[in-house]
Specification:
alpha+beta; Four Helix Bundle (Hemerythrin (Met), subunit A); Helix Hairpins; 5 domains; six-stranded mixed β-sheet; five-stranded mixed β-sheet; 16% strand
Amino acid sequence: MAIAADDDILQDFLVEAGELLEQLDEQLVELESRPDDPELLNAIFRAFHTVKGGAGFLGLEPMVELCHRTEDVFNVLRQGERRVDAELMDTVLKALDGVNEMFARVKAGEEPQPADPALLEALVALAQPAGGGDGAGETPAGAPAGAGQESAAAPGAQGASEQAPPREQGAAKDEGKGGDSDEITDEEFEALLDELQGRKAGTARAPAPQEPSAQPAAADPPQAAAAGPEKVGGDEITEEEFERLLDALHGPGRAPGTGGAQPEAAAAQATAAAEAAAAVRAPTPEKRREQPPEAAPPPEGGGSGRGGDRDERAAGSAGRGGSGSAPPSESTVRVDTRRLDEIMNLVGELVLVRNRLATLRSSIGDEAVSQAVANLDLVTSDLQAAVMKTRMQPIRKVFGRFPRVVRDLARSLNKEVVLELRGEETDLDKNLVEALADPLVHLVRNAVDHGIEPPDEREAKGKPRAGTVVLAAAQEGDHILITITDDGRGMDPEALKRKAIEKGLIDEAAAARMDDHEAFNLIFAPGFSTKSEISDISGRGVGMDVVKNRIAQLNGTVEIDSRLGQGSEVRIKLPLTLAILPTLMVIVGGRRFAMPLSNVAEIFQMDTTRTNTVDGQLVVRMRGKAVPLYYLHHWLAPDADTSEADRNGQVVMAHVGNQRVGFVVDQVLGQEEVVIKPLGTLLHGLAGFAGATITGDGRIALILDVPSLLRAYASRH
C-alpha cells in the first residue's frame, strides 16, 4: 500500500526522523568509546523514542516495533543493569540499519517491511538485565510481537489526555483563578511516565482483578488511588486512571501551576497513588524526577525525546498564556531546496547582467553611469555570496557516516583503527556534499583495508596496535581541500610498477621513466589492484578509478603521496560551488570558449622549437618532461587555419585527473565568472561540452568539459 507523500505530517516526520537517524549513526559508534556516559545513553534512548512516536502516529507498525525493542535495550543500559559490549553494539547497529531501510521505504512512499524476527528476538534478549533479575525496563520475553509497543509513553498518555473528559467538579472549585492552565509541565509528565512504566512492568506479571467504579475527581488523592487495583488487560491506561494520577500529582481538581502542593509533596503523592493503583514496586528515589514549583523550559537538546506530545503541550501552554515564560522565537526556517535553486538561478542571471553592464561601462564614458555600475557590481557580488551561503552545508553531513564505516570494516578485518575527523564545520555547496559521499567511502575503505596493518604486525614494527585514519577538510581560497591520511604501511612505487606491468597497463620502458609520484597515480588506473584475492571489500580494481572520474566530474583534482612504512595521504581539491563557475575565456578559430579555471595550471606562449612528435603524439617539453599537446582547432574548428596559432598562439596547460596536457588556442582573453546554462535538446549530451553561457559582451560561449573532450577526441588525432 502506498503512503501519501504529500501529507504535511509525513513530511515533517521525514525531516525530523532523518536528522535523528543521521545522529544515531554517529552516537552509537561513539558509545563504544564512552559506554558509561549517561547523557549519551539518554540521547540515544530519546532519539529511538522520538522516531517510534512519530512512526506510531503515522501507523508505521514495523518501525514502531523495531524502535521499541531497541529502546528497551537502552532502558536497561540507562539503569546500569547491562553494559555495552561489541556484540550488543553489533545487534543495535543492525537494528539501526533496519530502521533506516524502513525509513527509506517510507520516504519512497512505500509501506515498511517487518523487521527480521531473529533481530527482534536478539533485542528482546538484550533488553533483559545481564544478571537475569527484574528490571524496571524489562520486557517479558514471551510477550506477543505487538504487545507493549506503546508503553505509557507519548502515544498512550497523549491519547488518554486528549480523550479524557473535563473534570467538571475540579473546574468548578477552581473557577475564578485567572491564568490557570490545564496542561502539565514536562517534568511532571516525566514523573508520571516513570510511575506508569513501573506500573506496566509490575502488572504484566500480576493477575487482573475486576476494576471498581471510578471515584469522583474531587476525592482525596490517596483514597481515590487506593480505591482498588486497576484493570491491566492492555498497555493503555483508562481515562479514570489518568484523571486520578493527575489529581494525585496536583491535588483534587487542581490544574498544574496553580500553587497547590509543594513539589516534594506532589511527587510523594504521585508515588503513593501509583503504588496503590498498580500494586507494584515504586521506582527508586534516584530515578524519580524532582518536580519544580514553576513550569520549566524543556532540557537542552529537546528534552526527553517524547517529541510529539511534549511539543504539542508546550505549544498549547504558550497559546493559553500559561504561567511559564514564553518560548523564544525560532531562529531557523526550513526552505525547500528547489526554492533555493530558483533563487540561485535568478542571481546567476543578475551576474550575467552585471557582466554585460561592466563591459558597456568602458564604452559609455559617463562618470555617473560608471559609478552606478560599480555600485551595482558591489551589491551583486554581496548578494551572490549571501545566496551561495544559503546553499552551503557543513561537510560534517558527509563525515558523519564514516565512524560507522570504519568501525564495521575494522571488525570485519580484525584490525584496530581510530578515525579522527577534522574541519567538520567547513562549508561546501549542497550538491558537492551529496556527490562526495561515494568517492570518500572508497578512499576511507582503501585506507583501512590496504593501508592499516593488523595489530600484531604494527606492534612488531614498533607502532601502536591501533592504526589512525585522519579525514580532514579545510578551505583554501575559493577551493576546499579534503585529505585522507593513514599511518599504515604506505606504498612501494616499484611494487606498483611491477603490478601495472603484470596487468598490461604499462610496459617496462614506461615504468622506467616514471617517478614515484607517477607510480602512485597508477592506483587510479581502471582494473588496477594490489590485492591478490577478491573480497567483498576490495580486489576488483574499480574503487579508485571511480574516485578519479567522479572528482573530475566535479571539476576537482585528486593527488596521492606515500612513504613506505609510514603511511599515505590522498588530497582532493574541489571548488566551493558548482552554481557559478570561474572560467578562462579563450578564442579558437574566431569563436569564444570558456574553460573551467579549476582545470587550468598555467599559460605560456607557443614555441614550435620546443615541440616534438613521440610515437605519433605531438608533445611539448616542459621542465624536462614531455607533455601531450593538442590543437583545439582540430576538435572545435576543423576548417580554421592553424598558421596563426603556430606563430602567435598560446598554450593552456591543464590538469585532467592526474595527467597534464597542453591545448593550443589563438588567444587568451582572461578570467570571467559565468553561469552554466544547459544545452538545448539537439546538443544535449554532446561530448566535450558542459553547457553554455552569456559573456559580458552579450555573446554566447560554450563551456568546455575538458575530461570529456579528451576522451572523445584525443584518440582520434
